[in-house]
Amino acid sequence: MRMVVMKRTALLVAPLLALAACGSDGSDDAAGGGDRLEVVTSFYPLQYAVQQVGGDRVEATNLTRPGAEPHDLELSPKDVLSVAQADSVVYLADFQPAVDDAITEADGTAFDVTKAARLDLAATDDGHDHGGESAEEHAGHDHGSQDPHFWLDPERYADVADAIAGELGRVDPDHAAEYEQNAKDMRTRLDSLDASFREGLKDCQTTDLVTSHAAFGYLADAYGLTQESITGLTPETEPSAQAMKDVVEHIREHDVPTVYAETLVPKDVAETIAKEADAQVMVLDPIEGVTDESSAQDYFGIMEANLTTLEKGQSCS
């Protein structure tokens, strides 16, 4: 089935590429015809990192529209064309299948951040994390997968920014030093954010983090929390009655005060569980996208809002 989809996509994209070639004299410095690099990114955290590292020298577009759930991304032929024409395509392999397919049109310009992100935590589709178990240790469980949400750990996000600086420097070596400095500046801000989280979450009433889906594993691991998710990596997965019962029992047994709903996904399941367990509901943002309803309009602002929420929800002093 996947091969059929890719053949169909290629048939749709090939005429668009031909038209684009006819309309260009080959003298443009970037795919978009301007002086700035044209970089296509697959979802918001990568777009934001490219913008911060590339500065005014880069035009970063996002394949995932604002308000859309990135796990379920579908690409139009125009989207695939933008991938094919970009100076660089920054993505996370195996997170968005449609992007993985479109990368076949990228002609050597694709840059996968997986290695820099250090995806070493396992999350499961049964709604339960396996503690601090690594992805390698978890490989024997056929219901699990690597947690892709690296950007919720500022240290991993800084490493990805460094890798992006290297990619931009490869494409545009004349400004490599500038990209490297921008990445260093971003790391400084991320180090400060990390310090704020460590200080804010060092003394909390509970370390149990009950979330709608398994998006907060790296955040939990970085700051001494234990994630207990209602569903697994896919937020739209409907939890079974037994899974919901298990979470309610966990909340009661560990005296957990808060169930965290999320942006971009319905809150009804979290609200049902919280009501049954006599807990409150608060909203954490996995920063998979930014909308007008987001607590802030960029990564740092949303992370700071998340910290404030966690300090209240975990009863930290």
Give descriptors for this structure.
317 residues, alpha/beta, Rossmann fold, 4-stranded parallel sheet, 11 helices, 13% strand, globular, metal ion binding, transport, ZnuA-like, signal
| CATH structural class of the largest domain | Alpha Beta
Largest sheet: 4 strands, parallel
Q: Uncertain runs with pLDDT below 50, 5 residues or more?
A: 1-33, 130-144
**Computed CA radius of gyration, to the nearest angstrom:** 21 Å
**Could you give the order of strands across the largest sheet?**
2-1-3-4
Strand portion: 5-15%
Q: Whole-number average pLDDT?
A: 86
Task: Find the CATH superfamily of the largest domain.
Answer: Nitrogenase molybdenum iron protein domain
| Number of structural units classed as domains | 2
State the separation between the terminal residues, measured CA to CA.
Answer: 53 Å
CATH architecture heading of the largest domain: 3-Layer(aba) Sandwich
CATH fold-level label of the largest domain: Rossmann fold
Structural class: alpha/beta
Order of helices and strands: HEHEHEHEHEEHHEHEHEHEH
Helix segment tally? 11
Secondary structure: helix percent: 40-55%
Gross geometry: globular
How many distinct beta strands? Answer: 10
Protein name: ABC transporter substrate-binding protein
Organism: Janibacter melonis
Family: Belongs to the bacterial solute-binding protein 9 family.
Pfam families: ZnuA
